[in-house]
Amino acid sequence: MRTETANPVRLSDYRPSAYAIDTVDLHVALDEADTLVTATLALRRRDGTPSGAPLRLDGDELVLVQLALDGVPLPGDAYATDPDGLVLHAPPEDPFRLTIVTRLDPAANTKLMGLYRSSGTWCTQCEAEGFRRITYFLDRPDVLAVYTVRMEAPKALAPVLLSNGNRVEAGDLPDGRHYAVWHDPWPKPSYLFALVAGDLAARIDGFTTASGRPVELGIYVEHGNETRIDYAMDALKRSMRWDEEVFGREYDLDVFNIVAVSDFNMGAMENKGLNVFNDKYVLADPDVATDTDYAGIEAVIAHEYFHNWTGNRITCRDWFQLCLKEGLTVFRDQEFTSDMRSRPVKRIADVRTLRSHQFPEDGGPLAHPVRPEVYKEINNFYTATVYEKGAEVIRMLKTLVGDDAFRAGMDLYFDRHDGDAATMEDFVACFAEASGRDLSAFMHWYSQAGTPTVEIAEAYDPSARTYRLTFTQTVPPTPGQPVKQPAVIPVRFGLVGSNGADMTYASVSGAEVRDDVIALTETRHEVVFTGVSERPVPSLFRGFSAPVKPQIALTPSDLTFLMRHDGDPFNRWQAASTLAMTMLVAGSEAARSGVTPRIDPAYLDALDETIADGTLDPAFRALMLAVPGENDVAREIGENVDPDAIATAHRTLRAAIGARLETTLAHIVSEASEAGDVAYTPDAAGAGRRSLVNAALDLLAATGRMEVLEAVERRFDLATNMTDRVAALSMLVHRNAPGAEAALGRFHDRFGSVPLVVDKWLAVQATAPDPSTLDRVRGLTRHPSFSFRNPNRTRSLIGSFANLNPTQFARPDGAGFDFVADVVLLLDGTNPQVAARIVTSFRSWRSYEARRRAKAEAALKRIAGKPTLSRDVSDIVERALA
Ligand code: TRP
Ligand code: ZN
User: Which part of the chain is CATH 2.60.40.1840?
Assistant: First the structure.
């Protein structure tokens, strides 16, 4: 019986369900002790289903109380239950109603999937397969139904009762209970169902859509947080307006509610008309939230809101198509942030995230295509590849077809597929039609894993005045995909002349070139430009026009030239990063053999000039100061990695920058007040100023001079906002400043009662590059402010240690790996989804040098050896070890 839900699940096995569900009536009786759910489903045989075909419904950890068909209780032999669901052996031929009563224990639900309690609030999380933990159902995204939800609860415990759609009825009941009825007119898949019941504070506001529809907006939070809602509300209104202006998409219900809960497995969830958020992405005031937090709130509020069209009105046919909603919605939220803030700064930040999260995934044992073809546990496919690389693929599509055809393709998609559960083929077909281009080869981006490498050779012929660029691409083998087809790669480019301006040319051949984009379609292209008056410096992949690894042997002087003159800000930054990376890689080799690495003075000169240029955006200058991180260097080195050697190289380079740029950096710091910005505003301009000052201070501190640390300590005490305060705290702790311990104590005294600030306190300690850190982290797991039951606390302490502390996680004695493995085994019993996330920090274990590799492998094998391992964790460790 269990075999009917085959595992692994394969895309090629997709079949529509035998039955459809047209309406769902849910009665949810909430109580402290337990909860009764009565679901009445209107079912109908789909065309092509033989009459009498058995009906299989999904279920997970459910207690069945009663099952009735058209109002008549079913005898026990009419159906069978098993751990994965329920089968009705012989359903009637004609449409019928199935009534299912299940009993739930939300307080005991530590997986935070299905119906659970968070700080006394009842809430749900159904994506991807959580609805089956509430009732038996066809819990798959291609079964769309209209939901009516009647919920009742003790009024004192839950004065607020929310679900999807519009509230149609409410009232009091005997015994201090009350009820509300919500109706959602839009057919939706079960993963978009939500309900919330609790004693919550709210801010209610309004929005009028472009066509004049008034919408009530509500943001609900735990009492005590009501002063931290304003920024999220403003971000929501800006998102709604932007989607109308840029994509022509209006909101489609009378209310839009957001609830912030403190126990949540991911960032937020786009349930129709009732988004549920991790409170980290809602709550903010300058005293507790950093600029990064504000930017995160703005982006996640937008992301979830944008799902209303890309995800909800048009949903996914099956979970293999997850990128249909996620890649596209990430692309949309990136564009929103670019319009709200600085486009180049946002682009650089996104590429840094892609390289630090997605590239290691794509280059390791967990590599999978943007649209996977097989999975064991769908929760493990909410990945950087599906989300971030998925967004890059949309961006390339836009680059290839051009802005106008892209908008026309989007319009066609919304028009043609509204109300559908669609596939990637459906989506891409709209752009093929709108642009008149054949996009079949472009689909390889969805089916092939691995980051392509593009090697570029250049040759200038002064007598013929021709310039030749030879591109050779390789898509590397990945698990299950040894041989690859060439990818379609858009190369946005400029040929930079000696005066710093882009040069013109007479003609170009060898590839399709439109405007400033070369489209590579074959393994090798020789692109020849004629009428080129001097040897240009090539500026390729401007704006990071494709998620590939370009390899071109530009000289250091070409790169410092691009740092100073490239018309594309992304490539100015890229040139600096490339130079720094070369020095970091050489530096870690040098550190291993005990040699002092050489740091290119021309790089430091060009960097100094850029940083001193007051006409440049401070946020951009701050990014220029950020050299590639230690994990980036490890990835570049690729094998036999020694994190300690990389850390030494990193420290050395940063100290050299701090010393050479001292005058410029000190000037930046001295121009800012010690107390930070007096009147804090969370906008991009203010955030950029603060990020530059803090980056400057950190580089000055990297020189190891005591007076800098004293200044940092003063800034810590005088700070009037959390951005400057936590930046200073982190400098003190990470440099083992004499005042570090006392500062940590003062910080906790003041903010220990604000959980989201405790997270920062935990993360600062977990990321200290010091041999004592592991013991400290162990100790913090027993601190009263910490709990393994809360995903945010767990990620801040354990996730930060495993992902952002390369030398201490990968201690040569293996104790860091062992500790994280212990945590994974512990969490596996309570919250497997979070445990599986944490275990992915082992994903690059094979690239360590032999000793660490053996220790990491032993830790992974120890996890794999646990007899009752969850499917979430076993899926990751099995693939990691394969
Ligand atoms: N769809 C959510 C998003 O906006 C992701 C998500 C939230 C999720 N909670 C989840 C996915 C729980 C899996 C499990 O990206
Ligand atoms: Zn999403």
Answer: 453-546
> To 5 degrees, how large is the angle CA 859–CA 864–CA 868?
130
Q: How far apart are CA 125 and CA 473, in angstroms?
A: 42
- Between the CA of 471 and the centroid of ligand 1 the distance, in Å, is 39
Catalytic residue among 304, 377, 458, 713: 304
Domain 1-198: what homologous superfamily?
tricorn interacting facor f3 domain (2.60.40.1730)
pLDDT tens digits, one per residue of 587-611:
999 999 988 888 999 999 999 999 9
Q: Is 671 an annotated catalytic residue? A: no
CA 416 to each of CA 260, 332, 410, 719: distance values in angstroms, whole numbers, following the listed order = 34, 19, 10, 54
pLDDT in tens, 129-183: 999 999 999 999 999 999 999 999 999 999 999 999 999 999 999 999 999 999 9
pTM over 0.90: yes
CA 268 to ligand 1 centroid distance, Å:
6
Q: How far apart are CA 103 and CA 183, in angstroms?
A: 23
Kindly identify the ligand whose nearest atom is closest to the C-alpha of 329: 2
Q: How far is the CA of 303 from the centre of ligand 2 (A)?
A: 6
Q: Which atom of ligand 1 is nearest to the CA of 379?
A: 13
Q: Which helix (H) or strand (E) holds 591?
A: helix 569-592
Residue that has been written with the tokens 């066509």 in this structure? 211
Task: Ligand 1 pocket test: pick from 193, 261, 263, 269 the residue with the most ligand atoms within 8 Å of its Cβ.
Answer: 269
The amino acid sitting at 797 is L
